[in-house]
From TrEMBL:
Organism lineage string: Bacteria, Bacillati, Bacillota, Bacilli, Bacillales
Name of the protein described by the UniProt record: TetR/AcrR family transcriptional regulator
Stretches assigned to coiled coil: none
Superkingdom assignment: Bacteria
Keywords: DNA-binding
Positions of the HTH tetR-type domain: 28-88
DNA-binding segment(s): 51-70
UniProt-listed InterPro entries: DNA-bd_HTH_TetR-type_CS, Homeodomain-like_sf, HTH-type_Tx_Regulator, HTH_TetR, TetR-like_HI_0893_C
Molecular functions per Gene Ontology: DNA binding
Keyword Cell division: no
Length: 212
């Protein structure tokens, strides 16, 4: 078609200008307001009930503003979930020595895990809601697998050395990680005082539950 390449070049130029304009005008405060409103609403009324309209109202932004930064509700929830899992992974493995004995790494992982929950109560409860929902068992879960790599490596080393009583990673997690998480959640709800002594006991119980 006559003039086709010229029109195509002009379209690319306009899209490029629009992209750089968007990047210059990106409002991080509005994005953070949207993220915090989403976390808060999901924890308050559940994932299914937290509509884009309700999120926009709580964040004090227009619905159109949300769609500038996120494709839809699933994209919004997914991006927040991935960011949260990345934060958790960084906190859990913070300050750990890959060459340390397995027992030492086990304890450090669990202490850091509890610290993340206590430091990010609302975010952690949000992550749990999303993880338990059938809606987002797609790309965001696959993308977050990398953040569990050190713990999975720990399980592999423990299995190789004959340290653990079971070779199923899911069962090992159920016995040593989830009980600690549940105690931390009960602490958040005010039903339990998860102090240092009880954390020490929980870690010891978890270790005894999975090791020979």
């Amino acid at each position: 078609m006559k003039g086709g390449p010229i029109r195509s070049a002009w379209l690319v130029f306009k899209l490029t200008i629009a992209y750089y304009f968007f990047m210059r005008t990106r409002d991080d405060k509005k994005i953070e307001a949207i993220v915090q409103a989403t976390i808060s609403l999901v924890n308050e009324i559940g994932l299914a009930e937290a509509s884009v309209a309700k999120i926009s109202k709580k964040a004090n932004v227009s619905v159109a503003t949300i769609y500038i930064y996120f494709q839809n509700k699933e994209d919004l929830i997914g991006q927040i979930y991935v960011k949260g899992k990345k934060m958790m992974g960084e906190r859990v493995y913070e300050g750990t020595n890959p060459q340390a004995p397995l027992r030492e790494k086990f304890e450090q992982y669990l202490r850091n895990f509890v610290a993340f929950i206590m430091e990010n109560k609302a975010y952690y409860l949000f992550l749990e809601q999303v993880a338990n929902s059938p809606v987002l068992r797609n790309w965001c879960f696959e993308e977050t697998e990398q953040f569990n790599a050190p713990m999975l490596q720990w399980f592999e080393e423990a299995k190789r050395d004959g340290l653990v009583t079971c070779t199923d990673v899911m069962m090992l997690t159920m016995y040593c990680v989830l009980p600690v998480a549940q105690l931390a959640k009960e602490h958040i709800k005010g039903n339990f005082v998860f102090d240092q002594a009880k954390l020490d006991s929980a870690i010891q119980m978890g270790w005894s539950a999975i090791t020979n």
